Amino acid sequence: MEAPPTVGVEEEFLLVDPRTGAAVGRNVDVARTAADFGIDLQLEFSRCQVETSTRVHSTTDGLLRELRELRRGAAMCAEKNNALLLAVGIPPTVSEDLPVTSTPRYRRIAEDFGMLAHEPGLCGCHVHVAVPDREVALQVSNFLRPWLPLYLALTANSAIYRGIETGYASWRSVLWRRWPSAGPPPHFSSVLEYDAAVEMMLSLGVILDRKMVYWDVRPSATFPTVEIRISDVPATVEESALLATLVRATVMTARRDLEAGRQAPAVADDVLRAAYWKAARFGIDGESVNPVDGKLIPARDLLGMLLDHIAPALEQLGDRGFVDESVAALMVHGNGARRQLNAFRERGEIGDVVEELAEATLRSYR
């Protein structure tokens, strides 16, 4: 039996004032402090964001440990610069207009894309799963397209924005899809077709470089992986590890289908967009659209369908127990969106939301 593919995770975090909860532009200082401690923090687009990247992992236990260590290290470095680290999809409070991080590339994006580039602090989570080549990455992407809305619903973590309820479990994903190269990718039949689409966007100035291909699943521009980018940054490390495990097992299942000569399900673009909207609106607690048949289904039932679909891969990974425990804990405690709403509705205080998010960022059930 072929060894399971390796997996890695990138998490983006928000830096806020510990007293007011407002986003603060201190990522350069926090990253400098991190370097002094041997911690590699990347500077994200907005100065109120930092990003962590795990090593390549072959086990979920190892991935979970490193995710926990990275969050703790990043939080410590933020604290030393009078900032609080939050795992949250968007700033929950009203923040002043923060400048973009001052790198040549980021400045050029800000100049070319106007107000799109001045929505501070949209924080996501990216999962990388190893594949042999770009052709396999692209074919696997087609198999993952129907499950992208479910991944979003599971990890939705941006229900409060600018001090009010948005009415969405993931408002970040709604804002993010305004970028011309973001959202669900088309179904591509070949690498040539994919490359032609990217070249078209480059020639029209819709993107400035290949790193701006922001589709929610894509062959990575940097690593020999398929990269899934749909998710809000999850509230807890267990949710991030759960997402990575589900994605990894789905990739494994897709590769087995490819080897068996099976085709990816045909999912119409309009149905997929509808599924995206439902996922962003209601998260894991409401109804979803099954993209394959276009019918409404409770999100939790759709999650059960995914778990049945990838069960052999989870068994091979030895992760079925972890997944079952993590899903059960998620249903009890709620994802980030439910945590935010519960905290906000109790007293209507943003401080309660920030406190809940800060605790969840470093909380661990294992």
Automatic annotation (TrEMBL):
EC number(s) from the headed UniProt entry: 6.3.2.2
Enzyme's top EC category: ligase
Keywords on record: ATP-binding, Ligase, Nucleotide-binding
Protein's GO biological process: modified amino acid biosynthetic process
ATP-binding found in the keyword field: yes
Superkingdom of origin: Bacteria
Record field: catalytic activity: L-cysteine + L-glutamate + ATP = gamma-L-glutamyl-L-cysteine + ADP + phosphate + H(+)
Family annotation (Pfam families): GCS2
Entry keyword annotation includes Ligase: yes
Single annotated GO MF: glutamate-cysteine ligase activity
InterPro entries: GCL_type2/YbdK_subfam, GCS2, Gln_synth/guanido_kin_cat_dom, YbdK
Family listed: Belongs to the glutamate--cysteine ligase type 2 family. YbdK subfamily.
Record's function text: ATP-dependent carboxylate-amine ligase which exhibits weak glutamate--cysteine ligase activity.
Protein name listed in UniProt: Putative glutamate--cysteine ligase 2
